[in-house]
Design a protein that fits this description.
The protein is an alpha/beta fold. It has a single domain, classed as Rossmann fold (3-Layer(aba) Sandwich). It contains 9 helices and 8 strands. Helix 3 (114-125) links the parallel strand 5 and strand 6. Helix 2 (88-101) crosses helix 3. The chain is globular and about 40 Å long. 44% of the residues are buried. The model has no long low-confidence stretch (mean pLDDT 97). Residues 1-20 are annotated as: Disordered. One of its GO terms (molecular function) is serine hydrolase activity.
Length: 261
């Protein structure tokens, strides 16, 4: 038998041709971004250790109807970092500064993992800038992470992202330091309390795979249960890497969310 879909880590997609790429000098670093299509803006935020290429399957599906902006978080992919410690607040401020740079008063946010946490921080702290939030596989606190040493796919992902970092980064030898700094954040952040989640008033779907072994189901339900009027979607037969494990379904779910009133 073939291995279950949720245990596979398909190849990282390539970004499609035709995007307008740029670097925004903000908050002491250079944030790389690419823009595709036209229409209402949709910002896509990748997971920790990753880069915007992971959205390569979703961009064509969305860019026919929306202006899609993919962003490499600070220190990830093609973006640079400085000596400031990583925090979700800092990375959320990078997104707001990029929106200012691109003259976008408001956007829908699609976030995966760390990107979803950044999206939640924006919905809490900068609600006027967020039209909607599709939050795939965030955790509300460090204890919401499962034991990553037991995750086969996450181990593969770590090895892969090290190779991708060496290829894309302006500091190709810096992965170990980069990983160590991110790990400090993961073990101490976020702290999304019931009160903070309860303050969210923008439309939110909290989404996860039914076989996610990176974040706990208990924490996913905690987040969904405390955001007023949020939707909860559990995608079947996928894990933490649903966006590449079942990319067509992932794209369809995003489109369904974006097209709702």
């Amino acid at each position: 038998m073939a291995e279950p879909r949720w245990q596979a880590l398909p190849d990282t997609p390539e970004l499609p041709a035709g995007g307008h790429e740029g670097e925004a000098p903000i908050n002491g670093v250079k944030i790389w971004y690419a823009v595709y299509g036209s229409g209402d803006p949709v910002i896509m935020l990748h997971g920790g250790l990753g880069n915007s290429n992971y959205w390569g399957n979703q961009i064509p599906a969305l860019a026919g109807s929306y202006q899609v902006i993919v962003v490499d978080s600070r220190g990830h992919g093609r973006s640079t970092r400085d000596g400031q410690p990583y925090s979700y607040d800092l990375m959320a401020s990078d997104v707001v500064a990029l929106m200012d740079f691109l003259k976008l008063p408001k956007a829908a946010i699609i976030g995966w993992s760390d990107g979803a946490i950044i999206g939640l921080k924006l919905a809490i702290d900068k609600p006027a800038r967020v039209r909607k939030l599709f939050a795939f596989a965030p955790n509300s606190k460090p204890s919401g992470l499962a034991d990553l040493s037991k995750s086969k796919t996450f181990k593969e992902y770590e090895l892969r992202t090290e190779r991708e970092y060496e290829k894309l980064s302006a500091t190709p030898d810096g992965y170990k330091d980069f990983y160590a700094e991110l790990n400090k954040m993961w073990t101490s952040q976020p702290d999304l309390t019931a009160e903070a989640l309860g303050s969210i008033r923008v439309p939110v779907w909290v989404v996860d795979g039914d076989h996610d072994d990176v974040v706990t189901r208990e924490d996913t339900l905690f987040i969904a249960n405390h955001i007023p009027w949020s939707g909860l979607l559990i995608q079947p037969e996928v894990g933490h890497f649903s966006l590449i494990q079942d990319p067509d379904r992932f794209s369809d779910d995003i489109l369904h969310f974006l097209q709702r009133d």
